[in-house]
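Next up, sample data.

:::
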Amino acid sequence: QVQLVESGGGLVQAGGSLTLSCAASGRIFRINIMGWYRQAPGKQRELVATSTRGGSTNYADSVKGRFTISRDNAKNTVYLQMNSLEPEDTAVYLCNANVYTSPIASGDYWGQGTQLTVSS
């Protein structure tokens, strides 16, 4: 019904920057919250940042001041601008969206993930 496709991951040196994108497609009536999570090897999945449809944002303490989430509601796309990257940011980054497929039916959807590796 709904697909989320991330792009923009890769290998970057510590201190560098990268922007991730996530585009939603399919049966979409409206998207509420969109966000980014990450999972490093051997660790639990953790929230990185979220954005409401109106633009209110929330960040993990570990990325505040370095990462910026934004979205283009017309394109059903969310972005994650990452600056001052640290080796500890290395993880698979996953996009999440709460999507209404009709006026009354909603669900949580996940992308397949994109790998970010930060070298020291």
User: Anything to note?
Assistant: The chain has a mean pLDDT of 97. The longest strand covers residues 30-39. The chain has no helices and eleven strands. Residues 43 and 88 are 12 Å apart (CA to CA).
